[in-house]
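Look over this entry.
=====
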Amino acid sequence: MQETATERVISPARNIEGSLRLPGDKSISHRCALLGGLAEGVTRLTNFSTGADCTSSLGCVAALGAQVVRKPDGAVEISGTGGQFRPPAEPLDCGNSGSTMRMLSGLLAAQTGSFTLVGDASLSRRPMDRIRKPLDQMGARLDLTEGHAPIRIEGAALSGIDYATPIPSAQVKTAVLFAGMQARGTTIVHETVRTRDHGELALRAFGASLERSKDAVSIAGRQKLHGIEAEVPGDISSAAFFLCAAALFPGSNLIFDALGLNPTRATLLDVLTALGAHIGVLNLEEKHGELVGTVQVNAPPQGMGGTTISGALAAQLIDELPVLAAIAPYTRSGIRIRDAKELRVKESDRIALVAANLRAMGADVEEFEDGLDVPGGQTLHGATIDSGGDHRIAMAFSVAALRAEGESLIRGAEAAAISFPEFFDLLESVAER
């Protein structure tokens, strides 16, 4: 098979071994970039995410009046606007980043002036009404195009609200908290499933105070933010692909240094442990409220078992479900996924693409509106994989291809650069052939 700029050939491996230090966590990088842009003073971030999505967040705060400088050592320095964004003459380009669009909308809702947020074709198909409703209730005006971007925001003096998120979403929760921090009174966000708490931790790191109960977060309004200096921990969502790759090979030994281990994000480690993988966590410490540690993973000699992922677990693992489904044929008992309808409105219809690509590799799979049944004990062959322009699909099936018989061709491989431009080089560095 021939590689091109948009296609990548993955050959089968016989083992996964080595050590990795991954680029900074995307969720943390986004939030620190946005809050650093609004804060007083300078924010200095080392190991900032190298993905295009987080670059979109930096570009937006720069367009709003913050000064953004990438230093020779790779650090990002943001001189904030001291609480007042400047409406730009041009629309704010969020690229492919739903995180940028949703969370920035929360910051802009309380600002003076008019703002327009646009994105690429993929982002312009994704649902945005879920942020419009709470921000409108607070007093801002958001105009959408049939529920999608472009988003036009008329900022206003906001009032705090008591809001229950109808669909578990860390991005929606963060958008409302970002708006509530600038509003009159107190804002409370209730969630039936606890979503990742990077927004809360970042707000605290930048000097805001907020309170967490079992199923709600509250933040007082009219708070000021101050710049911070922080090292962004390695991205556990990026680590997911390598963790799953290591779990496929009984002789594997893979070590991750300085990996983010936030409890609301580390659920994958529990699932892989339940499947039989051996995972050790070393040198655990806390930095700006985030847990960081060294992780070692070894595959079980007898191969992975099987599991069902549904309910709150599906919501917590939403980003990792494609790669878990992609390796499910190699487990002994298979993986069953339910309550994951949200996968259909990501960068692609991830349920449909996972099913189609597994079938292309010769797997049996049953597709449901909210998930998949992938039986275990299957042997897959190399195939041409359609990423659908979705970074997680491209990376998930690169992992599945490591255990297939014969080479696989990943079409749309360049999509991986959106979140993880080093992915293919790092995968080659730990794959033994």
